[in-house]
Amino acid sequence: MMVLRVALALAFLGLQQGLVTSNDQTSAARQQVAHAEFEAVSNPSRLIPEQRIADVWNRYVREIGASEEALVTAAEIHNLRDADFAISQLWWSRTNLTIWTMPNVYAVGSDGKVAEGCRAVETLRVLYDLDRLFDNLRGARERVRKGILLSDEIGKSLNSSAPKQKTTARLEAHVDTNPLRPQNSAICRNTDSIS
Q1: What is the DSSP string of 14-80?
Q2: What pLDDT digit, counting tens, does each position of 129-143 carry?
Q3: Facing residues of 108 across strands?
Q4: Domain that holds residue 150
Q5: Residue 140 located in a structural domain
C-alpha cells in the first residue's frame, strides 16, 4: 500500500515519468527520488514548492473521501517542516542519529530556516507525517493559528535556559483520531479482495 502511495505522490508531483515495469516495483521510484533529490541539492530552484505538496495532498484526501480536516495549507506544511527541522537539530546533537534527525535532509535557506520548498526525500517525510503522524499536523495547524514557529520557540528556550533546569517525562495514551484511518482501512480491504 505504501508503494502505491509513493507512486501516486511522485506522479502528482511530476517526478514519475512512466509506469514502473521492472520486477522490483520500487526501483524506478527510488531512482526518481534520487534524481529529484540531486536536482534540488544542486539547484534550489528545483525544490518542490510547499503549495504543490499541499495541492497533491489535498487531491489525495479528496480522492479517498477523507474528511475536510485532513486538508492542508502551504503554511501548515511549512510550520510542520519547521518543527521537524528544529527537533532534528536537537536530536542530532543529542546522538539520536537517524535519517530523519539528520538536519541536512531539510532544504534550508540562507537565513538558516527551512526554505519555502522541499527536497524529494523531505517531501516523502512530509507525506508520511500527514498520513501516519496526523497529530503533528494538528500541532502545526495550532502554531500557524497562533503565529508561532517552533524553531523560534526552541531558540528562545535555549538562549534563556537557567542553569538549574528540571527534566521531566510523561507517558500519554490516546485514541487514534487520524481522519485518514477509515479510508485507508477501506482501501486496504478493497485491495485485498481484488488480489
Answers
A1: T---S---SSSTTHHHHHHHHHHHHHHHH-GGGSEEHHHHHHHHHHHHHHHT--GGG---HHHHHHH
A2: 898 888 899 999 999
A3: 114
A4: 2-17+26-157
A5: yes
Within 13 Å, how many C-alpha atoms sit on residue 112's CB side?
5
Q: Judge whether 31 lies within some domain.
A: yes
Alpha-carbon distances of 83 from 4, 15, 80, 154, rounded to whole Å: 27, 26, 5, 9
Q: Number of folded domains in the chain? A: 1
Flag whether 61 is in a domain: yes
Amino acid (one-letter) located at 156: K
Is residue 135 in some structural domain? yes
Convert the pLDDT of each residue in 59-97 to its tens digit: 999 998 988 999 999 999 999 999 988 888 777 666 666
